[in-house]
Design a protein that fits this description.
Largest sheet: 2 strands, antiparallel
Number of helices: 2
Order of helices and strands: HHEE
Helix content: 55-70%
Shape: elongated
Bound molecules: zinc ion
Length: 132
């Protein structure tokens, strides 16, 4: 009886873990969409600022342009980070050498031949069904 209870508890834990992962996954995807649209907004702002500076010959506004460029750089860094988080949810990994996505269990990068160390296979990461 106790074994059954602990099995039920285990299954419940797994379902909870999985739904939490799905929640985190959509949260990361939403963040990526937000960061991408923020990058686009900054590009637009940059274009508008450059236009105004050129047209009105406002040399003082060079600082504003630099600020926007820095913003875009920061957002791009954030985007790279989020994409790497997303790839772990998708059972993928990113090659540290060439940044290409590959399957999580791949031993060598198909693009550059980088050899992955410590390939760990986490089978129940995405499956809820238990066979034992
Ligand atoms: Zn590679």
């Amino acid at each position: 009886m106790e074994k059954i209870i602990s099995e039920i508890k285990n299954a419940a834990d797994k379902v909870a873990k999985k739904s939490n992962e799905i929640y985190e996954f959509s949260k990361v995807k939403l963040n990526i969409a937000n960061v991408k649209s923020e990058i686009n907004n900054n590009y637009k702002l940059l274009g508008k600022t450059v236009y105004e500076v050129q047209k009105n010959e406002l040399s003082d506004d060079a600082d504003r342009i630099e600020e926007i460029i820095n913003n875009i750089d920061e957002l791009n860094e954030k985007l790279t980070e989020l994409l790497s988080v997303l790839s772990t949810y998708k059972n993928e990994k990113i090659c540290p050498k060439c940044n290409k996505n590959t399957d999580k269990d791949t031993l060598f990068c198909p693009a550059c031949g980088y050899r992955y160390k410590n390939v760990s296979v986490d089978d129940d990461f995405y499956s809820v069904n238990d066979e034992d």
